[in-house]
Specification:
This protein is α+β, with helices and mostly antiparallel strands and 183 residues long. It is 33% helix and 20% strand.
Length: 183
C-alpha cells in the first residue's frame, strides 16, 4: 500500500501562476481574469487556479493573493477592516442599496484608484507550510484548521510547490467513492 504524500499531490511552483509583490492589483486581476489558464494537477486533471502566488525577487513565495483579497483591497474603507479571529469580514456594515445607486460613478472611480495598490498590501502572507513528505491526513488537517484551499510545500526550507484542496478532495473521494485504499 503506497501512502499519498504532499509531494505526490503538489503542483510544482514553477507551473503555478504568480505575481511579484509590487504588481498593482489591476494587473493581478487581469492575470486571474485571463480567458483561460489551466494548470495540470498531480492527478493529471486540469485545474483552474483561484489563487495567485506572490513571489519576491529572491524567488521566495511570500504570500497568496485570493480573489477575496483583491475585493477587500478594492473596497471602500469598511471592506478593509482588520482580520478578526483569522478571517476577513467583508462589508460588515449594512448599506442602504439606494445610496449605492447614487454613488456608482464614485464607487467605480474608487475601485480604479485602489486597483493601483500593490498586491503586497492585501495578499495573505505565507504562515503555514507542510514538508513534501507530509501525509495526506496532515494536509487535510492543515487545510481545515487554517481554512486554506492552497498549502505551500517545503523541501530543504524552500517552497517547491503547492497542494490544492481540490486535489486533496479528489484523492479522498477516490477512497470514499471508489473503495480504493490509497491513503
Amino acid at each position: 500500500m503506497e501512502e499519498t504524500r504532499a509531494a505526490d499531490l503538489m503542483i510544482p511552483i514553477e507551473e503555478y501562476p504568480w505575481v511579484a509583490p509590487d504588481v498593482p492589483l489591476r494587473d493581478a486581476m487581469m492575470r486571474l481574469d485571463a480567458p483561460r489558464f489551466d494548470i495540470v494537477a498531480s492527478s493529471g486533471r486540469l485545474s483552474v487556479p483561484w489563487v495567485l502566488l506572490v513571489i519576491d525577487e529572491n524567488e521566495s513565495m511570500v504570500g497568496m493573493l485570493r480573489r477575496t483579497d483583491i475585493l477587500r483591497g478594492l473596497g471602500p474603507w469598511h471592506a478593509r477592516r482588520a482580520k478578526q479571529k483569522g478571517r476577513q469580514r467583508l462589508f460588515p456594515i449594512q448599506m442602504d442599496p439606494h445610496m449605492m445607486d447614487l454613488s456608482r460613478p464614485a464607487l467605480a472611480k474608487g475601485f480604479r484608484e485602489r486597483a493601483k495598490r500593490p498586491v503586497s498590501e492585501v495578499m495573505t502572507p505565507v504562515q503555514v507550510t507542510v514538508p513534501q513528505d507530509a501525509h495526506i491526513d496532515k494536509l487535510i488537517e492543515t487545510m481545515v484548521v487554517h481554512d486554506l484551499s492552497l498549502v505551500p510545500v517545503l523541501a530543504d526550507g524552500k517552497v517547491v510547490g503547492v497542494v490544492s484542496a481540490v486535489d486533496v478532495f479528489y484523492e479522498v473521494s477516490r477512497v470514499v467513492l471508489g473503495g480504493e485504499d490509497i491513503l
